[in-house]
Amino acid sequence: MKIAIIGGTGLTQIKGLELSDTKKITTPFGSPSADYQLGQLNGKEIIFLARHGNPHLIPPHKINYCANIWGLKELGATTIIAVAAVGGITKEMYPGRIVIPNQIIDYSYGRQHSFFEENLTEVVHIDFSFPYSEKLRKKLINTARQAHIDVFTEGVYGCTQGPRLETAAEISRMEKDGCDLVGMTGMPEAALARELELDYAACAVIANWAAGKTEGTITMSEIEQNLKQGMTEVAALLAKI
Length: 241
Ligand code: HPA
Prior knowledge:
There is one protein chain. By secondary structure, the chain is an alpha/beta fold. Helix content is 25%, strand content 25%. The site of hypoxanthine (HPA) has 12 residues, from strand 5, strand 10 and strand 11.
């Protein structure tokens, strides 16, 4: 098993990663967000990619998800842990908390969301009933338990287009649809990983209450503060796994 970590907002670098190499890759789908960092985390070989680039400058709807996932496959990754900042919609999803989601609803649009579009010899329909690897979700949950890190073990991730945050009415609709969390990068990333038969699970860090769930507006400083707390726990979880 070769683990790759995709870091989102608040995780542009991995603390404790003993870097041994960086790889610049070009793929048939263009360039990934950044050079891949190869190295050891707590004695285990991993690959790290900063989803929004390093420095953090690529907005969610401009990320080349196909190139990012293709590059990881090319480097031999078998398993992807995707770290992502999200907003909390339902009661238990309070800021600072870590959630290992188990389902997705995709509201994004206009992103290249499949490797199977051109020069096909057959039309490909992957099974996506359960979008995250249950094996990897369990591993994350069990590791967190052993390390006494509080994680919520399920949740429906709604992926919006961004880069703007949602309206209160959009969040209300998403809640009625069954979403617990809202983020902007979960798709097509998860589906592309499935297309290339990579085990993929997400570690979502709640940065704020979603729009309309608290009084007032959502500020970047609030998001950054909550993320700082959550990402410290995520870093501990990643080191253990
Ligand atoms: N909405 C969408 N994506 C997010 C949010 C949010 O409220 N917070 C962090 N990522």
